[in-house]
Amino acid sequence: MIAKQIYSGRTVSDAWLQAFTAVAEAPGQRLYHLVVQIDAAHRELPKIRHIADDVLASLKLADEPTIVTVRNTIFPKGLVRSVNSPSDLPRAFEEGREGRKRLRVSNAKGRYFERLIALHRSDGQPFNQLAHTIEKLKGAKARARYEIDLMTEVDVPDGLGVYSSERDADKPSRMGFPCLSHLAFQTEQNRVHCVAFYRSQDLSTRGYGNYWGIGQLQEFVAKEATLTPGTLTVIAGIATLGITRENARQFIERAGEATP
User: pTM (2 decimals)?
Assistant: First the structure.
């Protein structure tokens, strides 16, 4: 069924919990066109994250990463802190590639963060979309940047595209990587808002890490552009849960007790 309202919260944790609950209560644990708005997406309630990780660990789901690991696919905080400028991120990411392979944290299909900082276009040259967008936001005068993302490697819009129509359109698995297809930023006075679009999203195993990663990316973009992070809006074409209704109910009860 189509989601009938916008779910919102002050932090990643309470906004995600509202969205999770809505999907858990929906027929078939599936909602179309789920919209979540987060006031301060770079902030969280650690108790909620720990409970979510505990629940997933107890289910022993094969190959499901922790929330921090999911966050790092979008915003590897340690790597970002190691550089002096967004333009240095491709070099730092490449230098750490072998270490990620040894730790088995690499994805054969790539990472969202890699596409943000080193997207390979048709001419074979990598493009640092993140640094480019930050530079454009520094001089932004308009209150909004309107975009329609029909992205190719050749024509990169003002947002941060991670889905590539040129690279990904013919892949057989349409619900695999990348599910996140577009990020866009809009300025309002000294604030920078962000909109993220997912083709599909599993809120039980990926949702929290997705929201948190984009929120911290938004905070980084704002800081580098001498702005303040504003609202994050996440739109999921299809939102689902990868756990049973009973497991979801138990998690909601535990999380509710930890919510202030």
Answer: 0.85
